[in-house]
Amino acid sequence: MVAADQTTTPAKWPQTGDLFLIASVFAWGVNFPIAKFVLEYMSPLVFSSTRYFTASAILFSLVYFSGQSLRISLKEAVQLFVIGLLGIALFQGGWAYGLNLTTASKASILVATSPVFATLLVLLRGERTSILGWAGILVSLGGVFIVINNSFTEVTVYGGSIIGDLFIIGASFVWAIYTIVSGPMVVRRGPIFVTAWAMLFGAIILFCADMPAMIYTEYQNIPLEGWIAWSVTALLGAALAFVWYCSGISRLGVARGMSYSFLIPIIAISTSVLFFDESFSLIQIIGVAVVLGGIHLTRKSR
What is the dihedral of CA 74, 187, 24, 236, to 10 degrees? Predict the structure, then answer.
């Protein structure tokens, strides 16, 4: 079970778990447009495997210098392999492929379905989410659509391919499973330890899945700005964000914690406004308010 305060009356906001999750979704929101830029120079699997090898090395260094043992039992190795397969190989591989085949705006909406999947999965496990919690999730999902669609009178989200959309939806479902499966070990061994091993196993799987591309990619032809962007995704979007996310979920629980994921597309668009000369309309501001209202409802739920 994902430990937390999810069966008790919520304490005053913000708690430590809230701060961890806000930091993680900020990192992932900023990561979205940056990753789209990096994919111009690398294939999706090369991008994912190289940054997770790097992120795992950073986290292993933190574990080592903290004095914690890096040793794992055979049972833990199997569990961490499964966590890496779900959260790194399948999710990140599917997300990178989907992002490469569809538009960033559609991908942002489809990724936001993950909290819905997670809430359904914990319901199947016997963990009930209140009506208020469900209302918050659905309100936030509607707010995300308003932000991305940027219109109250017509549907404006087009482009991309159905294959790319399916990759993103599948990745969102896998992410919900990863969030639930990784919870008990994160509580037992700590988020940095678990994330380091999971990223290593996931990166190895991704490397083996597309070894020729890993070997024959012309890394020397990638410009400096490409490597800077790649470094940001490795450090901020991978190493730090995963640790913050696991730390937050272990404190708040799945349904209430994952509601913060609805902020990712908002932050992604805001990043594009600040750094890529895109605009932000009044309709989108209303959509942001709807998302925040939905998160507030979910956090108030038991």
Answer: -40
In whole angstroms, what is the distance from residue 42 CA to residue 245 CA? 26
Cα separation, 18 vs 170, whole angstroms: 26
* Cα–Cα distance, 169 to 107 (Å, whole number): 9
99-102-106-111 Cα dihedral, nearest 10 degrees: -30
3-state secondary structure of 125: coil
pLDDT profile of the chain (302 residues), mean per 10: 43 80 90 84 90 95 92 95 94 82 72 80 76 82 79 74 81 90 90 94 92 91 95 92 90 80 79 70 83 76 58
- Burial pattern 132-156, b for ≥16 Cβ within 10 A else e, equals ebbebbebbbebbbbbbbbeeeeee
